[in-house]
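Weekly sync, protein design subgroup
Attendees: M.S., D.O., the rotation student, P.L. (late)

Item 1: inverse folding check
M.S. brought a backbone from last month's batch and wanted to see whether the design step gives back something sensible before we order anything. D.O. pointed out we never logged the input encoding, so this time it goes straight into the notes. Structure tokens as presented (275 positions):
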């Protein structure tokens, strides 16, 4: 798809990308990776971090407001020679800064030359057989935010939004990886048990507060999208217990080494572009 660089939000992204190029000395990045809840350590195994920038020093980025989220932007060099832009600072829709702020990282990645956008998240599971610690490939989404990162008459095809090619590549690393449909809700509250029954009925497998809006913006910016969720909790009403954020952080800690290895292996298998 043609990169729609006239769309609102891309000027800010170009400014951020210019800052990153200047501060890291890396003119173009090949891959970008957004780290969600539980994925914080994943960048360590991918390669050598050559530069770390505090997120709030890069134009348009904000330090994250949630404990367990990482507030840096890193440039990582992989053994295969990929330059990976690791976005540790994600702005969530529930922060109320607007959808442009939510997708600024994704657009900055596109402006930095990125062709492959990898989105990760922590989420609730609508399937009892996918308990905390289960990594799941996102194969489709249902966007229930009632928002879009696209402004005006910007019609973008979302068939195959989540690249089947990259999902297949991930499965060549781990054939056991399940895939599912991710539902994005605005949050910040978790769901009621009735809402979870509703989401199962309409075809959701996973539920969270990120990723769908970013994936749409990534496709619009012309990038190939791969998304992976880490189940950190069974969705509301699935067990007797209440949901709390400490459980989310704990599931991430326990699954950390496995999902980090997984991501590193997937990235290692991506072809290195010659541009
Ligand atoms: I981590 O159960 C995480 N994020 N909406 N519901 C929603 N978001 C989440 C959940 C969850 N777990």
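Designed sequence read out in the meeting:
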């Amino acid at each position: 798809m043609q990169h729609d660089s006239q769309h609102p939000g891309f000027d800010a992204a170009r400014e951020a990308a210019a800052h990153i190029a200047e501060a890291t000395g890396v003119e173009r990045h090949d891959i970008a990776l957004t780290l969600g809840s539980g994925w914080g350590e994943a960048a360590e195994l991918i390669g050598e971090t050559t530069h770390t920038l505090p997120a709030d020093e890069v134009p348009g980025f904000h330090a994250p407001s949630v404990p367990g989220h990482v507030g840096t932007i890193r440039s990582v060099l992989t053994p295969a020679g990929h330059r990976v832009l690791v976005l540790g600072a994600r702005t969530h829709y529930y922060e109320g800064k607007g959808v442009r702020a939510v997708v600024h990282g994704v657009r900055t990645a596109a402006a930095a030359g990125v062709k492959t956008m990898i989105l990760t998240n922590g989420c609730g599971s609508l399937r009892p057989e996918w308990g905390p610690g289960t990594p799941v490939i996102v194969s489709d989404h249902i966007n229930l935010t009632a928002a879009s990162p696209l402004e005006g008459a910007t019609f973008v095809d979302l068939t195959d939004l989540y690249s089947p090619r990259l999902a297949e590549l991930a499965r060549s690393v781990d054939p056991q990886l399940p895939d599912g449909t991710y539902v994005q809700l605005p949050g910040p509250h978790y769901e009621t048990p009735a809402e979870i029954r509703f989401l199962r009925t309409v075809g959701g497998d996973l539920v969270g507060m990120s990723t769908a809006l970013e994936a749409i913006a990534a496709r619009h910016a012309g990038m190939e999208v791969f998304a992976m969720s880490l189940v950190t909790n069974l969705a509301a009403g699935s067990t007797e217990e209440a949901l709390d954020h400490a459980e989310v952080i704990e599931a991430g800690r326990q699954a950390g080494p496995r999902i980090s290895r997984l991501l590193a292996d997937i990235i290692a298998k991506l072809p290195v572009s010659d541009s």
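Discussion: Strands lie at 31-34, 48-54, 72-77, 83-87, 116-125, 135-143, 179-184, 206-208, 224-234. The pocket of 8-iodo-guanine is lined by residues 37, 122-124, 185, 187, 190-191, 207-209, 232-233, 235, 243, 248 (CB under 6 Å).
Action: P.L. to compare against the previous round before Friday.
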